[in-house]
Amino acid sequence: MHACGPKEPIIISNRASESMAEKVAALLGLPLTSMQMRVFADGEIYHAFPRSLSGHDLVIIAATPDDGSFQELLDLIAGARYWNATSVNVVIPYLGYSTMERAKPESGEIPKGITRTRQIFRARPDYVAFVDLHSEAVMHAHTGEVRIRHLWTERLAAEQIRQMQCEDLVLVSPDYGFSKRVGRLASLLDCPHTAANKDRYGQDKTIVGQLSSVLAGRTAIICDDMIRTGGSMLQTVDRCLEAGAAEVSVMATHLVLAGGARQAFIAKGIRRIIGTDTYPGRQSDALLQVFSVAPLIAAELRQYLGFEPSPGLKPANS
Asked: What is the distance between the alpha carbons of residues 129 and 90, in angstroms, rounded to a whole number?
């Protein structure tokens, strides 16, 4: 456990994660410190810390859904080092380019999941935590000088599903690669789970027959780490319906929902998409059922920094 400095931690965020940081700070009984920022006429961005960092452990909460958010995170880490924060601790709710963790041989591709994470580590934070990574490979793009943590949302997700009070529930992974994580969630819910292997489906539809023995007449929730365009999820919806599922919902941690993804799910008859607030701007509405990972992050920071919330504040559940 990292020993908390003599002064209370300071929590800041990049612009993308200000809402998330406000929730985390409230759970810890701390104020969110807003950076001083303005944009010059030529588009360059001015940042300044509004208070001294000396003697404080600094927490930066920063999703990186776009290039500007990523650069802002690097600037905040470098600035914290420049102004002598006791420690620099980063929580990344959503890591952009996280699906690009490897390059095909001879392709010339840049595996930005690795190269960008390496840039974060090279900025010399003391600690970096990620939430529900697509691949843990990106965590190891450093030389052992940074403490890293992978925060899993299964317990929060399980509670959301329990509140739905579904009968005859089956969890479905879109492919075998994600089935272990779906299996962990299923064990918390004491329900069966299965996988629909998308790689086999184009040549061999026997997968529908395999699913039918588990899904026929039951409620299916398809689970994945993220929904970007929804292609894999939408194919799995078809397979679940062909296999006789009575109802199908989908769940993913990171609700990117790029392009026409929302409309595509609605067209398939999906009435509920469950997910978290890790991707900036996602809130519950007629289609989305969004729950916050702020309690998970707050519990992790409390344990890591050895920080106790203010008297009378109810601790967040992990």
From this structure: 6
Residue bearing tokens 């002598």: 84
What's the whole-model pTM score?
0.90
Reported as a single tens digit per residue, the pLDDT across 197-251 is: 755 444 444 455 567 778 989 999 999 999 999 988 998 999 899 889 999 999 9
Instruction: Give the separation between CA 250 and CA 242, rounded to whole angstroms.
Output: 16
CA proximity to 278, closest of 152, 165, 178: 152
Nearest-angstrom CA–CA distance, 166 and 163: 8
Residue-level length of the chain: 318
Q: How many angstroms separate the CA atoms of 188 and 156, rounded?
A: 10
Compute the half-sphere exposure of residue 155: CA atoms within 13 Å on the CB side of its CA: 8
Place of tokens 């199908």: 248
> One-letter amino acid identity for 264?
A
First to last CA, the chain: 17
